[in-house]
Specification:
Blueprint (H helix, E strand, L loop, with lengths): L2 E7 L7 H19 L4 E7 L4 H10 L4 H11 L3 E9 L2 E2 L1 H8 L10 E8 L7 H12 L3 E2 L4 E4 L13 H18 L3 H4 L9 H4 L7
Parallel strand pairs: 1-2, 1-3, 3-5, 5-6, 5-7
Antiparallel strand pairs: 3-4
Helix pairs in contact: 1-6, 2-4
Length: 208
Amino acid sequence: MTKRIVVISSGLSTPSSTRQLADRLAADSVAQLRERGVEVEVETFELRDLAHDITNHLLLGFAPPKLEAVLDKLATADGLIAVTPIFTTSYAGLFKSFLDVIDPQSLTDLPVLIGATGGTPRHSLAIDYAIRPVFTYLHANPVTTGVFAATSDWGGGGDGVRSLPDRIFRGAKEFAELVERTDRSELVNDPFALDRPMGHLVGGLAGE
């Protein structure tokens, strides 16, 4: 059976180190899965291309067609690679806004590989204190290794402990192992699941 992986990059610039990290995480994950004899389909989405649709969804309570298509693909995915830049010690606002419009049920038991980029390695802790708890709250299953890439990592110096390629490989290996053994088909096909959270059905967001 073919596994489907969705990659979300919330970098704001072009070219983007956030997208670069997302692509490398995806490539290593695909390689790991294919070594296990698992076929993979990968779809990558840049959140900056969906920024207006995400805002409209937050304001109006329903997703425009382009954003709706991405949300549907995420709901039926077998794995998610999510990468965000770190601003002011936390994830990007666009990244959080996207998470806010996802049906929480669509992430249940979903394997997630978290990546983040920033100017200094000191921001690497944001993966564990800011990003991982959000996915845990949404009942997703983030792998143990989160991959942070500082500006210096792209030059090959790394953090002096483990190089960026090594960290990417380790995170991708954990992710591939989890994707391979996770079966979300019953969750995806649950006939009693709501298409959207109740807050969306009444024209607003829950907890607003």
